[in-house]
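Sequence in, structure out. Go.
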Amino acid sequence: MSRDDDLPDHPGRRLMLRGALAAGALVTTSSTAHAARRRAAVGCANPLVRNRADPHILRHADGHYYFTATVPEYDRLVLRRSRTLAGLRTAAESVIWTRHPSGPMGAHIWAPEIHRIGGKWYVYFASAPAESVWDIRIWVLENANPDPFRGSWIERGQIRTAWETFSLDATTFTHRGSRYLAWAQHEPGLGDNTGIFLSRMANPWTLIGPQIRLSTPELDWECVGYKVNEGPSAIARNGRVFLSYSASATDRHYCLGLLTADAGGDLMNPASWSKSPTPVFTSNDTTRQYGPGHNCFTVAEDGRSDVLVYHARPYEKITGDPLDDPNRHTRVQRLRWNRDGTPDFGIPVADTPAAPDGAASPAVATGPADRTTDRAATAPRLIDTVKESA
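Output:
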């Protein structure tokens, strides 16, 4: 997400370097050299934060980036803060909440997101009873202190959806004056694990009106290992609202899909949304990044350049259950935009080579050579449709 937890509202017309890393060397073309000069807006090495999955980064009006993610032990909620994206790598990490020893908030603490709504802080996350660890539901914490590292985190309780079924990965945003919650849930009667749902909200922990299904796993690439649509994240650009989501099992087959709606349409009408027939972000053998998924969007320090945040593993083979493997690392790279106004996710970039002792780590490369439009960052803004409460 972006400043003050808004859906990023500046238009998609950035140039993103996609510096090709072949045998560890950048392709030395003039266009790549030009793109390299532009990549400083991201300016951090990958992985950004190790052993942190399902990452969420909020850029707040106080000038800080706030970071939270799933920890491998699935037992607590953590928070980091930095004035730069790169600074999140070494920022002190605070535990803001821990699982209950028993009862409905006692296991599988997953996929937290931090949001600033109405002058308060909220964290959305998934949790299950300690006695029944797969009965996962969505929960909300609230903190009224201006500093989320201070004050008290109050348990606002479970978000009640239409069914008492497996549900997780909640995200919230506003559009044309209405607040929405998007999340993943198993719908009774469907032979899948989870689909993507949307509902308006009466307040940060209460849904109002109908909940609609935006997507269910139906395409081959959404059904590898498990039939899964999960981890939605929204971004508005170029007269459209885009909702990315993750699909398939959490091994190398994990990938991102994309839903699209016209910004002027009714987001609560399923017919307003279309699904990309192919995944938009997948594992890559060349860069050796596998299972990229559960993303969010933020902006670089320049306040305009879009940044894709996600997790991936640096190897393909996993021993045992992928959920027991701790090496899903948080990663960032520039998000570019195609000439038709749609997002170009590119490929997950390679790990940044380790710097020699005493040398600075190189800035993160952002993918293969540029093949999308190079629109000036100073061009007029095209839309400003999605706002968050202060």
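Check: The two ends are 14 Å apart (CA to CA). The longest strand covers residues 107-117.
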